[in-house]
Amino acid sequence: MKKILLFACLFLLAAACTPKQPDPVAEAIVEAMTRDIDQPCKITVSNLEKLDSTTFAVEFQRRISIYDIRIDQNTARLEKYIREGKKNNATKMFNDLQRDTKIFNELNGMKEMMADDTLKTAYYDYSFTYGGKVGNQKIPSKKAYATVTPGGRVLTYGADLKDIHKASGLAIPGYKELLDSFKESEEN
Fold first, then answer.
1. How far apart are CA 105 and CA 116, in angstroms?
2. pTM to 2 decimal places
3. Residue-wise over 90-115: b if at least 16 C-beta within 10 A, else e?
4. Do 148 and 124 touch, CB atoms closer than 8 A?
5. Which of 47, 55, 112, 165 lies 20 to 30 A from 159 at CA?
6. CA-CA distance, 105 to 117, in Å (whole number)?
7. What is the DSSP string of 24-93?
């Protein structure tokens, strides 16, 4: 019995002395936060806590709902501009309506193509505290939030939990490219 107790104590001591592996989520958040900083910096993330998870199905529904609302609003505006004889505004609104309808339809098609994969986790919401130093300026500890994919890609981060889902559609495979294709066509 004493040998078992001694062995258990040695095992616990060895486990406590083993250096902790860095948290890959914390490392990804630090990398995202410091990506565009062009001076020496040292940011640390602590108190990392997983708050929630979102499936692709929920994220698709969020994005599709946004475009459904935009289509309704743009249709009403288009009708108003036509009634008021505002040709330039009507033309712009018609183009916006066409773009939003195409994105709406593409999102529905992408959702169908993913089939059962829409039930997989798209990203996790995290809360964390960060602080450190950028250049000669000390950054006091602050609470923040992030959305991170299961693969460790940080989609968004910010100081307000309600703001972190504004760009979380980027978790949907092909969504960014879809939006970029419309930006390119508008520039040409």
1. 19
2. 0.78
3. beebbebbebbeebbebbeebbeebe
4. yes
5. 55
6. 19
7. HHHHHHHHHHHTT--S-EEEEEEEEEEEEEEEHHHHHHHHHHHHHHHHHHHHHHHHHHHHHT-HHHHHHH
Give the side-chain half-sphere CA count within 13 A for 102: 11
Instruction: Give me the half-sphere count of Cα atoms (radius 13 Å) on the Cβ side of residue 101.
Output: 10
Residue appearing with tokens 């935009």: 70
Question: Residue for token digits 């299961």?
Answer: 150
User: Do residues 176 and 106 make contact, with C-beta atoms less than 8 angstroms apart?
Assistant: no
- 169 C-beta neighbours (distance < 10 Å), count: 19
pLDDT interval class at 151 (50, 70, 90): very high
Q: What is the separation of C-alpha 157 from the centre of its chain, rounded to a whole number of angstroms? A: 7
Residue 5's SS3 state is helix
